[in-house]
From TrEMBL:
It comes from Oryza meyeriana var. granulata. One of its GO terms (molecular function) is monooxygenase activity. One of its GO terms (cellular component) is membrane. Residues 23-38 have a biased composition (Polar residues). This is Cytochrome P450. It comes from the Eukaryota. Its cofactor is heme.
Length: 211
């Protein structure tokens, strides 16, 4: 065999060996349509199931809210009719029992009205006055330190009809005063606060902004 023929045959074999892996790589890169379509269908089925579950949970919450509103409305109507009939009966004890019942109801609501367990702990508050009788005219650091020892680093005081949250932990105080300073920097205007702080001169009860 001539030398040029042997070289030509060797070159063909070499080209075939190089071309075969390239075809294999190209075929491996192409997605398999039979395995790709079921995956897309499975993903769409999961999305539909999650959407149905969310819609079902929304319907359940709306139904529960409607039931609660109906129960509260029925209870308020029943209490109104009962009190109306009780007052119209003109019993001798109505004048004494009705104010006592109202006072007890306000006291129980003030003691247990902590937002469903979400409000910080704090001392029991009196109706209308709250904790003003305990605080007095001097909301000093000794009183707040004693309250923090008893109720923890975050506790609640009720001053009149307003709730005051006190933070005595250094890290939480930095979070409140520095990191979230704009959100917690202002205080609501109140006549009671003005009386006890000389028209809002105290920095704790001052209003955020120019005034």
């Amino acid at each position: 065999m001539p030398p040029f023929a042997l070289a030509s045959l060797t070159q063909r074999i070499w080209f075939r060996r190089r071309a075969t892996p390239n075809r294999t790589r190209v075929s491996n890169r192409l997605p398999n349509s039979h395995s790709y379509q079921p995956q897309r269908r499975h993903t769409s089925v999961k999305a539909k199931q999650s959407t149905r579950a969310q819609a079902h949970s929304v319907e359940l919450s709306m139904a529960a809210s409607a039931v609660r509103v109906a129960i509260a409305t029925g209870a308020s109507i029943a209490v109104h009719l009962f009190l109306k009939s009780f007052v119209q009966a003109q019993h001798p004890a109505v004048t004494l029992l009705l104010p006592v019942a109202v006072f007890v109801g306000i006291a129980v609501g003030a003691k247990g009205g902590n937002g469903g367990g979400k409000a910080p702990p704090g001392p029991a508050a009196l109706p209308v006055f709250g904790n003003w009788l305990q605080v007095g005219n001097d909301l000093n650091h000794r009183f707040l330190a004693a309250m923090s020892v008893r109720y923890g680093p975050v506790f609640r005081l009720r001053l009149g009809v307003r709730n005051l949250v006190v933070v005595s932990d250094p890290k939480l105080a930095t979070e409140v005063l520095h990191t979230q300073g704009v959100e917690f920097g202002s205080r609501p205007c109140s006549v009671v606060f003005d009386i006890f702080t000389t028209n809002g001169a105290d920095m704790v009860f001052t209003e955020y902004g120019d005034h």
